[in-house]
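Re-run with default settings, no changes from the original entry. Doing this only to confirm the output is reproducible before filing.
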Amino acid sequence: MISFVMKYLSALLLTCSSFGLGFSPSPLRSAALQSTVRRCIVNSNVVRTQLHMSVEDEADILIDVQKSTTIKQPSASTLYPVISKIAGKEWTGSCRYVNANLEHATKLKLVGGVKYEISDDNKLTLSSFLTFPNGQTRQVVMEGERTGEDSGAMTLNPVEDGPIIMKLSEVAPDTILINEVEKESGKIIMTSSISVVQTMRGTELVGASHEVGEVGKDAIEGHQLWRMMENIDQKVVLSREFE
């Protein structure tokens, strides 16, 4: 910037000379020269001021460019391509239970529900409940966060301390996969899949959970077959038997 101003002043002085304003001791020429030099100095200050403003403008532009080129966080639909479609709603329904011998336990009635919530900073909360035939209800709340769209399975930890964590993954456009894992042993105790399907009654969640048995026994101890629909009333428990 300084070199530019010096070049500008030099050009102004050359312009002064080209108008016949030399460095003669003549009073008239001297007065004219002084007047021109003063104009040159004033003009140089204007140029310097203009240059200073230009530098500030350039800095503002640079800041704007940096802001516009800042890497934005992926959207919820990018991080959670399936869950984002059903998040914020309570899904409730009933379960058909099948034992290790693939026999339908018709007398065992289970009802329950699930709700996924995605916060503004893309953290995931999974709340679920299961009501047993004796009326007792077990509720679990898990939380986790996906750090990137290609980060693979994410971990959900219990809000209240508990022995089980969840490993969750999604297969776009319609399937959620969940492994329930013992913290200490790392053993998978249940593996589940939930599919978002469209039926004549609207959107439904169709799930199958497989209870993993102990070593040396049945590999799968039981199967839970779930169908759930959106609970419009948003009540804690709303059962819906299979039709």
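The first strand starts at residue 90 and ends at 99. Residues 1-25, 46-51, 236-243 have pLDDT under 50 and may be disordered.
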